[in-house]
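S.,

Sequence below, as promised.
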Amino acid sequence: MLLPLFEWFDALRVGDWISNSSYAAPVINVMHLLALVVVFGSLLIVDLRLLGRGMTEQPVASVARAARPWLIGALICMLLTGLPQILSLPIRQYYSPFFWMKMRLLLVALIFTFTLRHKVTLADEARVGPVWGKVVGLTSIALWTLVAVEGRLIGLFS
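The prediction came back faster than expected:
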């Protein structure tokens, strides 16, 4: 269903430039990985707080509000660097099961992060309870780790 789109991506000259450039692909990849580190850091600081670790002297909501701009900025950077990565080898990406698994997991992780996790982090800690905070924190860590692992598998096996 999306093959014509990926074939159109393959016909774009920008993909050839990225693939053939000595600097473009490595710079884009490094920026993507740096953004991933910031995403993980901004998520992990809040998730660890949900697990009762880390910045325990501050309320979860305060930690979450402070980390949110970093999370959103890094996600935007990942989008802006992920698109050129797809454009550089679109047909390879299209036929990679790891790419599609990453995209599915990314969608689930984003929905989870900006709905349930967001509500739990901003809710009164006494109302949420420690068990649900831990469940949400562990789920968040697991989802985003799987997204990163699938992304790495694209490069290794596709």
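The CA atoms of residues 28 and 85 lie 7 Å apart.

Coffee later?
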